[in-house]
Amino acid sequence: MPDRVMLLAIDGLDGGRVRALVEAGRCPALARLLREGAYADVAVTSCTPGLADPNRAMNSPTLWTTVATGQHYFQHGVHDFSNMLDSIEHPPLFESRHVQSPRIWDVLSSRGLAGVVVGYYVTHPAYPITGVMVSDLFGETDEAGVVSPPALLGELVGVLGADGYAAYRARLGTLGAEQTMRDTPVPSSNDDAMSLTRDVLRRFADLTEQQAASLLGDEGLKSVLRLLEHRLVYPYLRDDRMHRMFLHLVKSMDWRFAVCYYRIIDFVSHGFLGGAPGLPADFRQPFNRTLDHAYECVD
Questions:
Q1: Cα 84–89–93 angle (5° rounding)?
Q2: What is d(CA 110, CA 152) in angstroms, rounded to the nearest whole number?
Q3: Helix 165-172 vs helix 191-204: angle between axes, to the nearest 10 degrees?
Q4: Whole-prediction pTM value?
Q5: Phi and psi, residue 154, nearest 5°
Q6: How do residues 212-237 score in pLDDT, each as one tens digit?
Q7: Which residues of 142-155 are buried (b: 16+ CB within 10 A; e: fewer)?
Q8: What is the pLDDT of residues 118-145, one digit of tens each?
């Protein structure tokens, strides 16, 4: 094994689009990775019995648990986002305790090799390894277990510029959790969250002042803003916090294996691929390059 291995888990990444952007000179970091690193396009066809067809993709929790374990879902146990074996009426998200096979960091940890695991699917609650684990629900839940060892929580929240975890969660408002974003029909963000929304929309779209004001203030466009918050603002803020914590950890500790999971390309692809069909015609033009901006953001 090399002295150090770093894995970037980028959900929804399309190899063809990456290469096109690299050829256009727009993603220099990914270009370097293609030249000097190792990469793989992961097949995402569903392996669930009766659903194994090219039109049904494997869901992300199953896919990334398969990547980390090298085993099929019927071996590692994660077959969907929610675990209906726990409850049919109110199935909880799959958690780290449900993963039945060791993942790569577990194997390395058992041999005393330190790892940094940040934001990887199905790592909540974070559990002890040789190294540090930041759960995939950091910033999305008030439950304990967002960091292991727990003593690092204050340090990592400080990296995000907050006085405490509760304060950080309050600042995000309804932008703080994917499940809340899905379940809340109308935005109820606080002033901080609205400011964050405004900043992200400005970064990813060529909005006029009138369009921006309409999105943020017109009651008739609340459903549009909800789409943008779920498919763009939330994943950007989520990836931003994971990335900042990841950089801090890989710079401040001794490690042999490090992995960070990035979500924005997958979410933006679902919301904007094919001409942003969920947006009114007036807003499609300002957002027609949002997916390319997401690739540049990851770069």
A1: 45
A2: 21
A3: 60
A4: 0.91
A5: -60, -40
A6: 888 888 877 888 888 899 999 999 99
A7: eeebbbbeeebbee
A8: 999 999 999 999 999 999 999 999 999 9
